[in-house]
Amino acid sequence: MLDIDSIRKDFPFLEAENGENPLVYFDNASTTQKPIQVLNKLDQFYRKSNANVHRGVYRLSQQATDAYENARKKIAGFINAKDDRSIIFTRGTTESINLVAYAWAQQQLKPGDEILVTEMEHHSNLVPWQITAERTGAILKYIPLNDDLELDLEKPEKYFTPKTKVFALIHKSNALGKLNPVQQLIRHAKTVGAITVVDGAQSVPHTTVDVQQLGCDFFAFSGHKMLGPTGVGVLFGKPELLESMEPFQSGGEMIEKVTMTHSTWNDIPWKFEAGTPNIAQAVGLGKAIDFLQNISMKKVEEHIGELTEYGMKNLSEINGVRIYNKKNIHGGIISFNVDGVHPHDLAQFLDQDNIAIRTGHHCTQPIMKKLGISGTARISFYIYNTKEEIDKLCGCMKSTLNYFA
Ligand code: PLP
Question: Are 349 and 403 in contact (CB under 8 A)?
Fold first, then answer.
């Protein structure tokens, strides 16, 4: 069991101000709040250690470099990457996936090659592949959703052909909370020699991820969805693939030698970190990982699962509520609509009671199309949420629905 009271004390954002209604923050799949330890780390870094990395020989620059590179080590350990050189700091999941699409796929693919995605993707793991297909002449294919809103995996082998060169898939759905059998699917991709790209934006914050066990070639996630600062994310890549790739962006930091006509590249991972990197944010992400590891990812997952089950049960007892992802009872996400009420109206009413929920298509328009709707209301949980907050939400929803009745 998590000691929620003690955890909540670490999140100043959740404190009620001047007798106001305390914030109930249920938009964690979008971004999480930050604990005081991460805020202090950022503050401390800028006050005491701020200098550019890898460039200075003075002590401060070396301290900043150590802090930045230690964060890389920590992240490698967190996802069980064998080699720190596999960890590239990016701005987030979106940039990480674009890096693979531009620097690997757009260089390697030929007309007629196939890129396989799924109908469950966030736009971040779909649009870069659409652009890649247009630019290279590759064909974009996808594993569809079945009527239960799960990937159609009755015969997964039928989607993989000798022409499949890239298989990009979402680990955990931000709209449905479904954790996909990524390891099994990667095995299929490997039988046809495809490279595999996993969008872990929602899985890493919730569960223990082991990139060696998954067997993926690339794995992307964002710091801000797991208590870290915005502006920092990670691309894990197998060193041999990263070594074989051309740079994504170019300029300072990523070079070895530059003449007026030609340049050679730095070693990985710095070859992919052009310009001054997001130093403080990377250090802050390292602190967020310390925070999560102190709690233990097992407990994080259990708590989120318990809240989801409780939330689904209580919400489904409210008249007119239709939950779309009832099967994913522990996924941390509840996507729903209420008969006769537009989700935006619902969110605005709840906001008056200081309850923040997300509404819209959640960057998953193909899933909404499959459901025949334009959007849903979405609640998503994290470690500081409580059952009392769910009770409050349900109470406010009942009053809102009475108003609309
Ligand atoms: N993939 C998934 C599954 C997401 O939920 C998100 C963000 O909501 C992203 C990718 C994009 O993440 P970012 O905006 O941090 O790049």
Answer: yes
Q: What is the pLDDT of residues 201-231, one digit of tens each?
A: 999 999 999 999 999 999 999 999 999 999 9
Tell me whether residue 363 is one of the annotated catalytic residues: yes
Alpha carbon nearest to ligand 1 atom 7, residue: 30
Chain position carrying tokens 């259990």: 302
Asked whether residue 404 carries a pLDDT value surpassing 80, the answer given is: no
Q: Does residue 56 register a pLDDT over 90?
A: no
Q: List residues bridging with 377 in a β-sheet.
A: 336, 359
Cα(263) to ligand 1 centroid in Å equals 34
Question: In the chain, pLDDT over 90 holds for what percent of residues?
Answer: 94
Domain boundaries, the chain: 4-30+296-404, 39-294
Question: What CA–CA distance (Å, rounded) separates 325 from 373?
Answer: 14
Could you tell me whether strands 263-265 and 255-258 are parallel, antiparallel, or unpaired per DSSP bridges? antiparallel
Q: Which tokens sit at 103?
A: 């620097």
Whose tokens are 């709209």? That residue is 175
Report the candidate in 314, 283, 311, 319 with the shortest Cα–Cα distance to residue 378: 311
> What's the residue count for the chain?
405
- Contact at 8 Å (CB) between 385 and 28? yes
Q: Which of 30, 32, 121, 122 to mutate to test the pocket of ligand 1 (most atoms within 8 A of CB)?
A: 122
**CB contact at 8 A, 308 and 331:** yes
**Residue with CA closest to ligand 1 atom 5:** 174
311: pLDDT strictly greater than 90: yes
Answer for the pair 267, 85: CB distance below 8 angstroms, yes or no.
yes
Taking the centre of ligand 1 as the mean of its atom positions, its distance from the CA of residue 404, in whole angstroms, is 33
Q: Which CATH architecture has domain 4-30+296-404?
A: Alpha-Beta Complex (3.90)
Identify the CA nearest to 134 among candidates 172, 177, 101: 101
**Whether CATH 3.40.640.10 fits 39-294:** yes
Q: How far apart are CA 192 and CA 170, in angstroms?
A: 20
Rg (CA), the chain: 22
Retrieve residue 199's tokens: 């969008």
Q: What are phi and psi of 274, to 5 degrees?
A: -70, 140
In this structure, the residues whose C-beta lies within 6 A of any atom of ligand 1 are 29-30, 92-94, 122, 124, 170, 174, 199, 201-202, 222, 233
Quote the ligand 1 centre to 295 CA distance (angstroms).
24
